[in-house]
Structures are given as C-alpha cells and as structure tokens.
Design a protein that fits this description.
371 residues; alpha/beta; BirA Bifunctional Protein, domain 2; 3 domains; 3-stranded antiparallel sheet
Amino acid sequence: MFDTNILKNEEKAVFSLRSLYGRYGYKSYKMGKFEEYELYSRNRDFLVSENIIVFNDTDGRLLALKPDVTLSIIKNSKDETGCVQKLYYNENVYRVSPRTHTFKEIMQTGLECIGDIDIYNVIEVICLAAESLSVIAPEFVLDVSHMGILSAIVDSCTSDKELKKQIVAFAAQKNTHDIKALCAENNIDEEVCGRLCDFIGIYGEMGSVIEKLDKICCDAKSKEAYNELKFIYSLIKGTAFEKNIHFDFSIANDMNYYNGIVFQGFIEGIPDSVLSGGQYDMLMHKMGRKSGAIGFAVYLDVLEQLSVHTAEYDVDTLILYDDKTDIKELMKKVNEMTQNGTSITVQKQIPSKLRYRHILNLSGKGRENND
C-alpha cells in the first residue's frame, strides 16, 4: 500500500483534491506547456503575473510557457445551451514568484465550471473551495465578496474608467483615506463616498454581516447582489463550513473580467492566500463566448511555507553488504522487508547523516546487528 506520509504537503493536496473534484463529476483537463503568446497578451490584466516567458517556435510563431490555465480552458471549450462543463486540472504554470521575484515553475490545482451557470453552480463551487481548504489544513477561512455590489457603488461614483480602476484598487487595500481624497478631488458625492467606505470595511461571519449590508445596498443592482448573498448564506447556514466562510468586501478583482461572486482562501500558518477564484463572465464575453463561468485555483507552491513534521528516521533499516555478500540472499531480504512495509536503504558503507532505526549487516559472514 502506498505511504502518503512520504509526500510533500503540496503532493498530498493534489491526491486529495483530485479525488474530491472527481466525486462531484469534474473531469480531468490536460494541456501542454506551451500556448500561443497572443492568448495571454490580449488578456494580460487577467493574469496573476504580467511577466510571461516567450520564445519563437521553429515555424516562427510566438509561443509562451503557460502562466495560466483558465484562458486555455475557455479557448478550448464550447457554448452548449442548458449544459455546464465541469473540469479540474493539475498543471504547472510559469510565473514570477511574489516571494523570490524570479520565474518559478508552480504546481497549481483548480477547477472551472463553464456554461449556463446558475445559483446552484455558484454554491457548489464555493462549497468545493471551502472543502479544498479543509483538505489542506483544519484551520481555514474562505472570504467571499460580490462584485455586483462594488460595481454598483463605483458606478454611482463615476463613469470614468480610469477613476473606477483607482477606486477599486484602493478598495482592495481597504484604503479609505485615499478613497476619500480621490472622491473629494473628483467632486464625488460625500454620501456615495461614505457608502463605499462603509462597504469595504464590513468583514466577518456571514450572519453578522448580512444585516449591516442591507442598509448599504439601496439601488436595484446592489439589491440584486445582496439578495444573492443572502440566499447563499441561507444555504450554507448550518453546514460544517458556516463558521469558516466570511464576507470580506475588500476582495475586489478587475471588473473588466470578474462579476458576481469572488473569493479568497487562507489557512493557518500562511500569510498569503492559497486559493483564489470567482465568476468571470466578463472574461468569457471578452473572448467571444456567451456562457458564464466560475472557478478557482489552489496555489500549491505556497504550501511549502507550512511547517513540515520531520521524521525521526530517514529509513527503518540500513542494510549493509559487500562483495562477499550473497546477492540472492540480499534481494530476498530486501523484498521481504519492503513487502512488510519496512523502509530500507541498501549500502556498502554507512552514509554520513543517514538516520536509521535498525542496521542489518549482510556483509562478510552475514552478521546481523540491531542498534
């Protein structure tokens, strides 16, 4: 039987997540390492990192090492009325690490739900995001927001696209000071500005937030988004993940790509988000698609930051042999021990720094010693 204890944190997560997504009918999606550069250059703002490794193919085409999987899935999927395509992936992407600021090959697992998306699909993906975090660590928080409310409030502030972009950036930082300064500089109504600042300051467990949110959502667009959040809360209430799912309205993704529900996941011991996702209907439309979509990615590289329990021993038994050892006897002993679940290493000399529980000496006359 395969011993998962020998796997790294990120490798264990891959096994568990693959099984989880399969149980919900998500099919495995595989892609190559390369994609045409144009796909990424047209949607650079959607990427986590704008830096892309680019090279010329033998036929002169400009290719890129894939920095993202979602764009390729959209490109290779089709609109099918009344149906939803459910896919999961485990792929390496190539992007600049925020910690080292150098290019890194990053293992990433995620899922995409594409097609005639409805409220069930949204809730299913949110719950799968929460369950994905629980698979990785018992202590976690999934922060959920709704771009519909933020979009409605920002639209009431201004119609200027660049100004909207600035406001959204400050909202993501919970920077109410600069939001107020920006609003004053651009003669934005103080009441609307105050409503925006109040909105991004709301955070906490879903039940406590819903009541506060009702007072802020006073137009048709934000009311619609509020009702959706309220319905989502009513379905998650009483489930195992109720206390782990919070509303945090400082989550503000690019409104050119995202709409509706957006979320980020955090686990104890890691300061960065390990999961990120949401609805990206706007990206679908930008790529000429009529369908909706929602999905998320788990950034397995950040799991390296988790404290790893160091085993007391590297192997259970060190087997020593020499040129006089009966190789047939040696192979028989190795097979016998490994079949019984004992981890072994076969060496002629004791390696420096090797930690072993027992030693089996088959050298010379075949003396056996146990330490």
